[in-house]
User: What shape does this take?
Amino acid sequence: MPATVPLSARLAHVPPTVFSEMSALAVRTGALNLGQGFPDVDGPPSVIAAAVEALEAGANQYAPGIGVPALREAVARHQQRHYGLAVDPDREVVVTTGCTEAVAAALLALVDPGDEVVVLEPYYDSYVAMLEMCGAVRRPVTLRAPHFRPDLDELRAAVGDRTRAILLNSPHNPTGTVLNRDELQVVADLATEHDVLVITDEVYEHLVFDDARSAEGHVPIATLPGMWDRTLTLSSAGKSYSFTGWKVGWATGPAPLVQAVLAAKQWLTFTSGSPLQPAVAHALDHEPDWPRALARDLQVRRDLLCEGLTAAGLVPRVPEGTYFATTDVSHLGWADGRELCLALPERAGVVAIPVQGFYDDPHEGRQLVRWAFCKEPDVIREGVRRLAAADLHP
Assistant: This one.
């Protein structure tokens, strides 16, 4: 066996995920991890107890590939309660191993080689990997600093006769932008005009802050007139309930799109964690207010991080949702954000995520760095204290 094995063409141009690299750097150096988006505190104890009960009750063998009925029914109730969407739990919900698998299964099932997919950039890096594996052609629409709003003329120009799907992410990682109704209506009009699908990643659906909620907050594009029939909505319990390691997600939408996801998912994981599914059903049905309380708490931590970054000379764009704030570091003099992030553990004892790898254009986002505020307040305070005390120049 050779020391190295060439990757397939599907993966040859996909670099390793930066999240694993930077989290390993945090472990190796003992630095505070303000990079990867996982919370320091678990979700509701009642949900953990429900998982333990399911384990002890024997829910330890394969679940149905489509998901256990209790969770599919709870997801349907969640969509009705929050958004007024009537969802058939038997035909219009499929449980996935996190939203990452939902994205993978949706693209593998619905996109052929050569199909064009319009996607907002910077993108969550799994989008690029999966589009490469599908042989799809990316058509990026860039959210540019400092405001990170879509240029609607660029969006219109990106959608054409070869477009198969528009891949949305709102609330948007890594920028924290929440698409407003007017922006979503342009997407809806284009999807209808060109007869394309919309695949929408809404894992941060409940983590929207008051300053964005005053302008209506998160609006699922599936709720817009005429959009249910062409929209596949993806989400999970990981972010809303602080159980990112459970990897329990779902896709909802019209039965043909959901069945397409299931057709791919059955060859990926086949099924997802049996004892965790009834626990997530418990979360959706019996802890419905927990995500809103989490969002209020995260808003406090967001403000704590943003104020601390500003005091350290790293003025961020204040996000409307998600776990993340983004800073332009060009004034510090580094070649790019990645060089700064690689130096930060030694310089300041802090790890962050460079954003440049989430763009197709190597010149876009080169000086942007993402910081996570889904950490305990004392961790955030210590992190920004370290940054303020360090020499952040090359």
User: Anything to note?
Assistant: The first strand starts at residue 32 and ends at 33. The chain has a mean pLDDT of 95. The chain is about 40% helix and 15% strand. The chain has two domains: 9-43+290-389, 46-286.
